[in-house]
Design goal:
By secondary structure, this protein is of the alpha/beta class. The chain has helices at residues 79-89, 107-112, 135-147, 177-184, 201-207, 225-241; strands at 8-9, 18-21, 33-43, 49-58, 61-70, 96-102, 153-158, 164-166, 168-172, 190-193, 211-217, 257-259, 261-266, 271-275, 282-283, 288-293, 299-304, 309-315, 319-320, 325-331.
Length: 332
């Protein structure tokens, strides 16, 4: 019997096999080239490798290392074609430094078409994981330890979660001028001052000295062409700003709304929820923004905006248990 060999794997539509590696070493990538790799992190219950896809473009001249990640939540998909188009556009012979992208971080969640990891934990709440933890903790630990070293800048691409929709907005820590500048380069509708919460990928990368921001590029479980174009424009702006490629930075058609803070509103009863404002719409304090009806169609609650603000995201799922999200309000 022929012995199985996991040194390479064949992928439909690709003329040659993809190398499988145990650890990413960007210094081993030849200058002036693009490469596709699979990085093994853990094994499934059949003992087969669970691997993340990695795309690397290394320039011919030294420069910063920029990482672009997507699908830390397995059903947040808009970042995947942003990365695909980025690497279609990049000529590594004209590049200074290195761009490393991971189209899908949460491979088990992606395969299950769900937000969380396959043990029902949220990867973006438990970074940097544990070397001897549960399934998701070990996966998170090995992902950071094997793939995310030597990164100078990180753009982490997300979307809204199931049952919700988002504007195109960015979360960044305003107290760090570099992170704030990275956020401004994305030409988003809204920028929110948001120090990275503990346990997130952004927080873990900042702890090791990486300048990182989070991009919320639309809605889950779908590709949205306009938002994908906007996300790609922001990544190109970042590359040009960092001096990695020549080009002109695309300025926004409309200046982003800068929010000093944001918060979610929640229901205090259960029923059928309808949220009125659209994303990126401004609301006034006291304006009616949602209603809740019982299962017989009787109105039981009206909800008003507690302050002036802008709608960053909202619930579009009509069924609401007590404590369900209504909308995400940004405050200038």
């Amino acid at each position: 019997m022929q012995q199985l060999n996991y040194d390479t794997v064949e992928i439909l539509g690709i003329s040659k096999s993809i190398p499988i590696i145990e650890r990413l070493d960007l210094d081993e990538i030849p200058e002036g080239t693009q490469h596709r790799l699979f990085l093994k992190l853990v094994d499934d219950s059949l003992g087969l490798p669970i691997m993340i896809p990695i795309m690397v473009a290394r320039g011919v001249e030294p420069g910063p290392v920029l990482a672009v990640t997507a699908a830390v939540h397995g059903n947040e998909l808009n970042g995947i074609p942003v990365i695909h188009r980025l690497f279609h556009d990049i000529d590594p012979k004209l590049l200074k430094g290195t761009i490393m992208s991971i189209p899908v971080v949460n491979v088990p969640g992606f395969l299950l078409m769900q937000r969380k990891f396959n043990d029902d934990f949220d990867l973006n709440h438990l970074m940097p994981g544990k070397p001897n933890g549960n399934n998701s903790e070990v996966y998170a630990y090995r992902f950071l330890e094997r793939a995310m070293g030597k990164i100078d800048y990180l753009l982490d691409l997300h979307t809204a979660s199931f049952g919700r929709i988002n504007s195109y907005y960015v979360r960044a820590n305003y107290s760090d001028p570099t992170s704030k500048k990275l956020a401004e380069l994305q030409n988003a509708q809204i920028i929110v001052n948001s120090p990275a919460p503990d346990g997130t990928l952004r927080w873990s990368m900042q702890e090791q000295g990486t300048k990182a921001i989070t991009l919320e590029v639309g809605d889950p479980n779908r590709f949205q062409k306009g938002l994908i174009r906007s996300g790609l424009e922001g990544v190109h702006n970042t590359i040009i700003h960092l001096g990695m490629m020549e080009g002109e930075i695309e300025l926004p058609e409309v200046e982003p709304v800068l929010c000093s803070d944001s918060f979610w509103m929640y229901t205090d009863a259960g029923g059928i929820l309808q949220v009125y404002p659209q994303v990126a719409q401004r609301v006034k304090k006291g304006e009616e923004i949602a209603s809740l009806k019982n299962i017989f169609g009787d109105l039981i609650r009206k909800y008003q905006a507690p302050s002036d603000g802008i709608v960053i995201g909202k619930s579009v799922h009509p069924t609401a248990q007590t404590g369900s999200r209504i909308l995400h309000l940004g405050v200038e």
